[in-house]
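Might I ask for a little of your time on a matter of protein folding? The record follows directly beneath this note:
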Amino acid sequence: MNLWYIIQYLISIFIPVIVLAIAIWYLLRQARAIIRALHGLSEDYQLNDLLFRRILPQFIEQLLTPTYIPLREATGLGIDHWARWLGGPARLIIYDGVAIYLEQFGMFSRVLGPGLPMPDLDRYETIKSVIDLRPQTIERESIRAWAKDGIQVTYSMRAEIQIASSEEARRRAVVLPGDEEARNLVYPFDADAVQLAVESTTVANNQESESLEERDWILGSTGKIIGSLNSHMSRYSINELLFQDENSPQFFSFTVSEELFQSIDANLNRSGIQLLSLQAKQFSPVDQGISDGLFGFWSAQRERSNAIRRGEDDARRIRANQRAQTITQQELLDSMLENLSEINDGIPPGADLEGFSETAILLMTQTLDRNISDPILKTYLAREMLETFNILREQLGI
């Protein structure tokens, strides 16, 4: 009798436990199937540990060893990582040069950056984007655009961009004495700029899957830069783009002006991004015949410019020589007149002029001798000056 009661007692205890275990197993199985279908996960994706942590009460969860997620690179967190679609709890290890954008229930939650203490990913937060704060290089080949005169051109583009940072963020990135909140970072972290960059992303039509897909901030910036360059080129003819200065023509080399650079940088700054450098190279018309014709035209223009420069140089040299010769002749005449005046002033009234001829010839010979000894005057002294001297001597009767 006592044995029967013991058996009944054990059955009354174990049967509910078994039923509860079967129910929990069934619910976990259904939960795994729903999660796999909802997030497109494969059958071999391990969900048991994740679901176990999510169903545990929070006070028990705090007693367990936390799950760490290291973020060294922006590409280190796969697109199918559980922190992107399921969320926390987890502890984030964010290295210098990386920032993360968090969402809660599909809406913006906060932006986290590198440094200590290590932040926590809350239970209902998910990681939407991992942003690289380091400079990013963009290179695109064979970009096509239209000039104002209807000529289609192709060019290559190389740009360097980076997540923008305010003056305050750059100052806080360097540890200063007495500033306990500053971080010793190589790449400044600006939470507002990161938020702008993520929220300014665009979508594009994927022709293979025939669906819209979201572009990250790098692809979005690439589209803005190329769009600005193409818009700029459409406002000018190909001669205005490549042959702006005839003194130094650019053959198939488009130079980005400071005004264009500042315009593109201002456009990117509205999205929390700054433009560090921009180059457009290998610029040429798509049609080879047009390219050859333009090259011949520009070569002729360059030869014309060179001929004009040579003519201008010759004209300047001739003007300089004539000016120097005129100045020299004037100085010689002034000197001769000055000596003649001295001779005239030195003869008293009523004096005998018989010795005047010899004295005048002697003084004028000294004047001419003194000026001819000057190397500059000797170079520019013309034959007409000697003839002028003979005419003066005959008129004076000396």
Observations:
- The first helix runs from residue 2 to 39.
- The chain has a mean pLDDT of 77.
